[in-house]
Amino acid sequence: MDKGAEQAFDYMKASVKKLGLNAKGKVRINRAGCFDRCDQGPLMVIYPHAVWYTFIDNDDIDEIIASHLIKGQVVARLVIS
After folding, report:
1. Considering the entire predicted model, what is its pTM?
2. Which stretches of the chain are assigned E, i.e. beta strand?
3. Which of 8, 21, 43, 61 has the fewest Cβ atoms surrounding its Cβ within 10 A?
4. What is the rounded average pLDDT of the residues 34-57?
């Protein structure tokens, strides 16, 4: 939380809703703990593909939404292993 995760969560949830991606059976934004990776800062996992992302700001989140959620293309520069 000290790295802005709550604000990022709120931003992503609002963005997905605004784009109409949150309908039943589509995208669900869900809170989780630190996934045992708290030291890596805010991150997200996109299922069912289990792609792990790190991000710095809302621009990164927008890129993940546009590329991964809408087009199905992984944003390689933000992927963590």
Report:
1. 0.88
2. 43-46, 51-54
3. 21
4. 85
